[in-house]
Design a protein that fits this description.
Distance between the termini: 34 Å
Strand order of the largest sheet: 1-2-3-5-4
Structural class: alpha+beta
Radius of gyration: 17 Å
Oligomer: single chain
CATH topology: HIT family, subunit A
Largest sheet: 5 strands, antiparallel
Length: 135
């Protein structure tokens, strides 16, 4: 089943496109948290960031910098959040990788976060497991 983002990529659903290349599309969110809320998506159709090809990931990284610069310039808002969720428990609603660029105009406008940090336990062991997983 195609996601709404794949339908946008295919041109079946119209949107306010702000950037596009062979690998990435960026467009205004239709239900923005604030003025300038922009989505940046790969054209590769995968649900989670860890399933994305390195090529698409690199193109996303470049596009995020370009689009964030443009959103700052266009809105005059230099504070913003970049949000990307993977999986239902992590609040992903559309199962196609996507990044939100959300200007933060004030404490009451934009993305709200509830951050509950914990103590790092057995950090070196976990760091080694992550390094091993990349080998």
């Amino acid at each position: 089943m195609q996601t709404i983002f794949q339908k946008i990529i295919n041109g079946d659903i119209q949107c306010h496109r702000v950037y596009e290349n062979d690998h990435v599309l960026a467009f205004l969110d239709v239900a923005p948290l604030c003025k300038g809320h922009t989505l940046v998506i790969p054209k590769e159709s995968v649900a989670s960031l860890h399933d994305l090809s390195i090529e698409s990931g690199a193109a996303l990284g470049e596009a995020l910098v370009k689009v964030a610069r443009a959103v700052v310039k266009a809105t005059g808002c230099e504070d913003y959040n970049i949000l990307q969720n993977n999986g239902e428990v992590a609040h992903q609603a559309v199962f196609h990788v996507h990044f939100h660029i959300i200007p933060k105009v004030s404490e009451s406008e934009g993305l709200a976060l509830d951050w509950n940090p914990k103590e790092l336990e057995d950090g070196e062991s976990l760091a080694q497991k992550i390094r091993d997983a990349m080998a």
